[in-house]
Specification:
Blueprint: E1 2-3, E2 6-9, H1 13-24, E3 29-33, E4 46-47, H2 49-54, H3 59-62, E5 68-71, E6 73-78, E7 84-87, E8 93-96, H4 98-108, E9 112-115, E10 123-125, E11 128-131, E12 135-137, E13 139-142, H5 149-153, E14 164-171, H6 175-179, E15 189-192, E16 198-205, E17 208-215, H7 221-235, E18 246-250, E19 261-262, E20 265-267, H8 283-300, H9 310-320, H10 332-342, H11 346-355
Parallel strand pairs: 1-12, 2-3, 2-13, 3-9, 6-15, 13-20
Antiparallel strand pairs: 4-8, 5-8, 6-7, 10-11, 11-12, 14-17, 14-18, 15-16, 16-17, 19-20
């Protein structure tokens, strides 16, 4: 049986980032994922310059052979009403393809990789975690997304949570179809549902289009997606998606009640339920929580008891709750009223929805 310092379940951005940071400190890490990389991952797929900085990624180096689409604005609106263009003077985000980005992060992590094997039920015995018959370590990190088996071991019940349910597709239209499409590569488009409980998007990344819609609690999701696609075809000249829509789920930070710390175990990324309210952005919280978890593990210096790991909980709270908007604590009806008024004021809309600067 192989003995590691840390086992990480899930090779997405949260798990790969945690493994990378631990490996640089000399920690022996194994990452286990049920998929084989590169794998097709449904995700709108955009990252901020801060993510590249935190991960020490040179944009020019990364874009060699990969998509890194500079974004300098967004087109935002309520479905059925006129949209507004929100422009920036600089690049504020980059569109990426998750099949490329996740594979890049995982390969450069330096961790031992076990791909194509699912983890069923982690067991803790005699102060260590065991995965199957061959893997054992005193420290376990759950990075397997919303339905992560490590989160289940800490008491999460994904089927009973009020999560955002999403369906999306990424496809490569013909050059002629892209030429007729009104969606600009530097300006992704976001359209919020009338009940403000979700939104649809259309991102153009290089030669690819990503189209999808997420809604909480997911009522009539298939119909909403069909209606949104029909709108994009009719009003924005988007070519009919070529292929099958895929589904996934995630928890918004304000909705998550998951326990993220236990004896010898931490949850990161979507396994901890850290997606930003409003935008649903999950990659930056995944990266940041992966880095925070790695620092706490390194500082613990082999003492992985629950009390020693509580620093992780405190740091998550300081990072993700300190800037929480007052509106997150208001009744849903009042929040909806405030949000609809925002669409009449593009500057405020940009600051609150995209920049997250305002307390409202």
């Amino acid at each position: 049986m192989r003995r590691d310092d840390v086992l990480i379940v899930g090779g997405g951005p949260a798990g790969a980032t945690c493994a990378w940071a631990l490996g640089r400190a000399g920690v022996a890490v194994t990452v286990i994922d049920k998929a084989r990389f590169p794998r097709d991952k449904v995700c709108a797929g955009w990252i901020t310059p801060a993510v590249l900085t935190e991960l020490e990624i040179d944009p020019e180096d990364y874009r060699r052979g990969r998509v890194l689409q500079a974004i300098s604005g967004f087109r935002v609106g309520l479905m059925g009403e006129a949209a507004v263009d929100l422009a920036y003077a600089e690049t504020v985000s980059y569109g990426i393809r998750r099949c490329e980005f996740d594979d890049y992060l995982l390969r450069r992590s330096g961790a031992r990789l076990i791909c194509g094997e699912a983890v069923r039920a982690p067991r803790r015995e005699a102060g260590a975690w065991t995965l199957g018959a061959d893997l054992r370590a005193p420290m376990l990190v759950g990075a397997g997304g919303h339905a992560c088996p490590v989160a289940r071991a800490l008491g999460a019940h994904p089927a009973g949570e009020i999560a955002v349910l999403a369906r999306e597709i990424e496809f490569r239209p013909s050059a002629a179809a892209l030429a007729d499409c009104a969606v600009r590569a530097e300006r992704p488009e976001l359209y919020f549902c009338r009940d403000l409980a979700g939104y649809g998007w259309c991102f153009r990344k290089g030669d690819f289009l990503n189209v999808g819609l997420g809604h909480s609690p997911g009522h009539d999701l298939a119909r909403r997606v069909d209606d949104f696609v029909a709108f994009l075809l009719r009003e924005r000249g988007v070519p009919a998606p070529d292929g099958r829509f895929h589904g996934h789920a995630y928890l918004l930070r304000e909705q998550s009640r998951r326990e993220c710390v236990g004896d010898g175990v931490l949850l990161v990324g979507d396994a901890a339920g850290l997606a930003y309210p409003g935008s649903g952005e999950g990659i930056r919280p995944a990266v940041e929580s992966g880095l925070l978890a790695a620092r706490v593990i390194i500082e613990a210096d082999g003492d992985y008891g629950g009390e020693r790991l509580q620093a992780y909980r405190a740091r998550l709270r300081a990072r993700f709750e300190a800037g929480s908007a007052i509106a997150e604590y208001l009744p849903a009806g009042i929040r909806a009223w405030l949000a609809r008024r925002l669409f009449r004021h593009p500057r405020l809309l940009r600051e609150i929805l995209l920049d997250r600067k305002s307390v409202v």
